[in-house]
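From the thread on structure requests for the teaching lab: each student submitted one protein with a one-line request. Submission from student K.M.:

"Model Voltage-gated potassium channel from Streptomyces griseorubiginosus, tokens only."
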Amino acid sequence: MRYRTLGSSDLEVSEISLGSWLTYSGGVEADATRACTEAAFDAGINFFDTANAYGRGAAETAWGEILSAHPRDSYVLATKVYFPMSDDPADRGLSAPQIAKQIDASLTRLRTDHVDLYQAHRFDTTVPIEDTIEAFQKVVAQGKARYIGFSEWTPEQIQAAIDLAGPELFVSSQPQYSMLWQAPEAEVFDLCAAHDISQIVWSPLAQGVLTGKYKPGQPVPEGSRFASADMAVSQDLVYSDAILEAVQRLVPIAEEAGLDLPTLALAWVLRRRELASAITGASRPEQVHANAAASGVELTEDVLTAVDRALGDTPVTEPTLAPGAEAGVKRR
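Reply posted by the TA:
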């Protein structure tokens, strides 16, 4: 496993990290959650990414039990705040009271006195940005989080936050990014790199589409991720016959390079030095080890060119909002 520095922080994170969105929030049994987490340690993964909203606390609770058995300095722990935590419409967002309440609740569930990275799960266009910045600064000053990051913020929102907070507060950006969703390259990567903010990308395998297991002309398999109503990425974006046909064109490219398709896809995102880590999900320990094997794989220019030709104009490359994101900035 290789490691990269997370932005301007002193955190060294594994190139492949373990996420907990659809799996450890209730998608798999407790024994499988524990087995996958322990497999991550075995594979050299030290970066664990969760959120308070995953199962409304269930994922944090699961990891709180499992990770607390490991020395606190043996792993880097990240969580997030923004999405609803109850049926109360006010119980969401990035207001100062909400951030203060949710960081304490997360720490209780995670059984720790601090997280290494606390992230805004989305931008809150209903709260003055000054209030959000001050609340995050207070969380750091109190020692409840070492560093702050954000997920799916637009360039306008990123720049506005940097203008207020300076370049030191934020160390990471978490966008959706894969062979099929290349939009962040257009603006977000360069803007963040200019301020020493690393990318931690989610859905590098496009919710499993880039494993090649879905075939064109066939219905969505029952029980698969794309059969779930909770998918954050719509089928129109990464699940269509045109996309699945492009993915199948990638299979022989991977084979010629001596790789399987998931390893090719993970190595492809890790080719960008703006990335610190690619977040992967797993429901079985062998998936954890297979994903971890992508760390350190270097793709040749011939392979990268072949990938571009196979995909053609399939990927989303224009700046666009990911599900749950909104444009705009509110000020006092």
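TA comment: The longest helix spans residues 241-256. The chain has one domain: 3-208+270-298.
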